[in-house]
Amino acid sequence: MEFDPPSIGDIRAAAARLEGAILDTPCVPSETLSAITGARLFLKFENLQFTASFKERGALNKLLLTDPAIRARGVCAMSAGNHAQGVAYHAKRLGVPATIVMPLGTPLTKIARTRDHGARVVIHGANLSDALTHAHDLAVADGLTFIHPYDDPAVIAGQGTIGLEILSAVPNLDAILVPIGGGGLISGIAIAAKTIKPSVRVIGVQSATYPSMARALAGELEPCADGMTIAEGIAVKTAGGLTREVVRALVDDILLVEESAIEAAVALLLSVEKTVAEGAGATGLAALLAHPGRFMGQRVATILTGGNIDLRVLASVAMRELVRSARLLRIQVAVPDAPGGLARLATAIGEAGANIVDVAHDRLSLALNAKGTVVEIVAEVESRDHGEAVLAALRERGFEALPVALR
After folding, report:
1. What is the dihedral of CA 129, 133, 136, 142, to 10 degrees?
2. Half-sphere exposure of 49 (CA within 13 A, CB side)
3. 151/356 Cα distance (integer angstroms)
4. Cα dihedral angle (65, 70, 76, 77), rounded to 10 degrees?
5. DSSP state, 232?
6. How far is CA 377 from CA 134, 283, 317, 397, in A?
7. What is the CA radius of gyration of the chain?
């Protein structure tokens, strides 16, 4: 079935429909990130929605536009996380039974949260495409209304309300950076933004691992190969049909970002803004980090589309960023295997201003005297220069300290 894209009138109607149930989230400048990126950067905090994602907007708009008698039979959706929670939460609020199909490998926390919102969760399929097919089959078999995560005019209109809010908060923007998975969010924002301010550039951002929309616009219709990314919220193998036509008509460009830039953006948002963004939600900032000259001096907004990141992944990202920025120093030191040896080493490191985060011994190294041991220490330092100063301080105290690369 083919649909026409929503109009600006549909998006404004959606905004009125959603009022009171969806937050008009802050869209505010980040002074520190502006200094880092060279752009005047504004952040739209959609990770502050109740389910920590913008997906609530489209899900609720679709629910409210569905005939109540039909809606009462139940709804069905496919998602690996945010869309699932948005549908489940608002369906429960409206007293509507919800069935959510999630693929194998979906993080357990996202499955648990979706169930907590009252939905029946069905785990099926090796990937999102398999889960989508099964969700369609369930909807037909059980007479449920299917709520597509992106290729639906009502869903696109709901997501487009973000565009209204951004330009209301910051009317004189030069560009809006929008993460792209299936394309529902950028389609809605582009329709709203280009109508209100035709000169504003709407630029999509995709993980280089899943460039499905960029490939579709280039005429490459084969699905993306499976790959590993921390931006699983936009890890869509095939772009939407309706959304790709909107993107083709209204979006100015699509930028691809590597995993390292996405990780750096997640870590920066955590350390600078004290806010948690999932990988997909940080890709706009990642694009600014990866393409700094392109936006120098311009007024740019990006959307922190969600904050549902696994805590283990977040911890790993934070520690890996310390490695990238040379704020973790791993050193090997040979010391006598006798009382007080490790204490003297630890004291020297502390007096040099470093903080020990991990210690390991190797008493079996044949390169040492039997009365010696190799101590490997990971220490937190202020910078690369500080790390060099710590090594120099240890050597001045007579320790044979060798740096070891962290990979």
Report:
1. -130
2. 34
3. 51
4. -10
5. G
6. 51, 34, 21, 17
7. 25
Helix (H, G, I), strand (E, B) or coil at 357: strand
Can you give the three-state secondary structure of 261-318, one letter per residue?
A: HHHHHHHHHHHHCCCCCCCHHHHHHHHHHHCHHHHCCCEEEEECCECCCCHHHHHHHH
The predicted pLDDT at position 366 comes to 47
Structure tokens, 250:
């209204």
114: left (phi over 0), alpha (psi -120 to 50) or beta: alpha
What are 255-309's pLDDT values in tens digits? 999 999 999 999 999 999 999 999 999 999 999 999 988 999 999 999 999 999 9
The DSSP string of 158-207 is HHHHHHHHHHHH-TT-SEEEEE-SSSHHHHHHHHHHHHH-TTSEEEEEEE
Q: Who contacts 169 (Cβ-Cβ below 8 Å, separation ≥6)?
A: 26, 27, 28, 42
pLDDT over 70 at 407, yes or no? no
Residue 177 to residues 121, 204, 288, 302: CA-CA distances in angstroms?
Answer: 33, 6, 9, 5
User: For 19-75, what is each residue's pLDDT tens digit?
Assistant: 999 999 999 999 999 999 999 999 999 999 999 999 999 999 999 999 999 999 999
